[in-house]
Amino acid sequence: MKRWRLAVPAMGLALALVAGACGGDDDGTSAAGGTSEAGTITIALGGPFSGPSKATGDNIRDGAELAAAEVNDAGGIAEGPDKGFRIVFREFDDAGVPANGASNMRTIIDDDDVVAFVGSGISDVSVAMAPIASRDAFPFLSAYASSEKILEAAADAKTVFVVPPTFPAYAFSVTDELLKAGHTRPGILHVTGTYGEGIADLVVERLHEKGVTPVANESFTFADTDFRMQLAIIKDATPDSLVVVGLAPSDALILAQAEELGLKVPVFDPGGITNNDTFLDAAGALAEGVVGNTPTLARRTAATTSLRDRYLAATGQSVIPDPAVFAYEGVRAVAAAFADGARGRADLASYLHEIDIADTGVGPLKFATDGSRIGGRLYVFRITGGRPVFFAGYEQTGPRAVREIPLDD
Amino acid sequence: MELFLTVCVTSVTLGLLYSLFALGLGVVLRTSGQLNLAHGDSLMLATYVGLGTSTAVGVSALGILAAVAAGAAIGAVAHLAVYAPVASRRKAGLAGLGFLPALGVALIVRNVAIQADPEGSSPFPSLFAGGRVNLFGDYRLPAAGWWLLGAGIVVPVVVALVLRHTVVGRRIRAVADEPVLARLNGVPVTRTLASAYALAGIVGGLAGVLFASFFGQVFVALGWQATLKGFVAAVLGGLGWVRGAVLGGLALGFVESFVSGYLSTRFRDVATFALLIAVLLLLPRGVLAGGRLRSV
Fold first, then answer.
1. Which one-letter DSSP state was computed for residue B251?
2. Which residue of A has its CA nearest to B11?
3. Nearest-CA neighbor of A190 among A209, A164, A216?
4. Which of A190, B10, B12, B170 could make a disulfide contact with A196, Cβ separation 3.0–4.6 Å?
5. Contact A8/B89, CB-based, under 8 Å?
6. Chain B: residue nearest A22 by CA?
7. Cβ-based neighbours of A277, under 8 Å, separated by 6 or more
8. Do B119 and A52 count as a contact with CB atoms less than 8 A apart?
């Protein structure tokens, strides 16, 4: 009888823990385009497949699966010792939590079947994972997370790559357009953490280079939903523009609350957040006039059109979100390295350093010796009539340098 | 001046939300002696029920009613199915662990919500009629804000009236004062406690849809946030029935908003919890309870 008295609360806790486990990691293998008897190349696909950033994780999966389907449908890896091998994924959900990402990385490295990691949607997560991968010389391709700190954290071996342009390109492209529009009194509202503070610091740096000082620089956390005090402080400083660095749901709430407070100034998003349906749907008419950036859509090359058409056919979405674009390129990079002769995880990174894809649909893809992308592009748009209308292009020419390029380049 | 007025509006709106969170926690705490750690998660799930209902049926009022009903149902069922049976079997040595069943319920409820909304947050249309109205300068308070101001005043009054003038309310107060004596006088203690949980759930469900309508979003983390803020407000208010919850919530709203507006938003939570610790150390009955405990 006494045992039963203890058993009831224990059962409650056990049930809770079981329920907790149900909402946790989703670790399964998915075949994109079918598996092969000949052999498979297993890539660990990571990202926030649950939690507040699930949309980013879903985009990463869509982009990666599109690339794998292309390779597999064409008969597998095109050349090299693993010719004909098909690409399969093993998914690791980090829920946007750095500790989960680090734990996943350990599991991934211990799995001899996995040759590389592609993914991660949050810079804090990539920053936690990259040093572990680097220590074991494991190939790690950060898709979407683009802080330069990811590369700084991976000092042990040159096996870490950042597929998107890094933060300076994001920050400088939109900041330059803000300055070109004649704004001299921007207010800044950014989320805390590597992503928000990294981009915001670079915006401030760029503004200072041009002799402009932001009139206010406020922050919020990912858990916040009430931004009225930060916006009131910014409004009190009489800004002529507002730079917002957050995620799609928070950015939409910020626009709504800015309207509530009567803060009516042009809004700039340097974080590449506003080019997706999550933001456009949530913000509705308030999104009109927002200036943002994205690596794709503006180009009209054959590869871009083809990528857009294939993504539409695969997902039904006409807009290719940024996480999908870079996950797509990450998988394409791994496939290209195997086609060039890589035999497995041991020599994959050295082949990744040598790849040179003329046009993935996003642009040319090759990496510098530090693992950053050479010549990453970003295109700046203004949301007009509910869709992005592009008006400027930028190319990253160095770790902290961009140059303006024609839209069709 | 506009910043000051904005801080005041934010203080009142946040404070009234915190009051409603604290009100539900306070009713259960006073009646059962238990801190209902599942209160916030229950109101969060009830808010999702409200969203689902209004979306499916297309009638906002039904969404509000569904949230309120779900809040009551979750509270009552949790008590009858978990808290009451566990309490009746609890060993004396485990008295300090009375919060564990509520913690288990909170985690279960939270995971049900995660299954319903894997992204962890969803846009929430305002379920309250009306448009934005100018308060001062350019500040235009949305309709949900006006409803929040009204509910923040009316709901505590209604709860106080229920507790004073209805049979259920008198039973709740009797059980809160002397559960053994109440039982000896024929009060069905278990059912009365379930009523208290249901009453807390009704207030919680309404608070949830007000919060979500006001901020345009419902999210899973709202549960823990509501429990935490409600608890702090309840402690500040002296863990009373109604007055303490209202005054504690408003006090918390003012502290958070003025620290954010005139010191830094980064210090908001630091100030809140520093104040909580100071109150627990120096005025354990709460700032607003004075030197003695108060009833309704």
1. H
2. A229
3. A216
4. A190
5. yes
6. B111
7. A317, A319, A321
8. yes
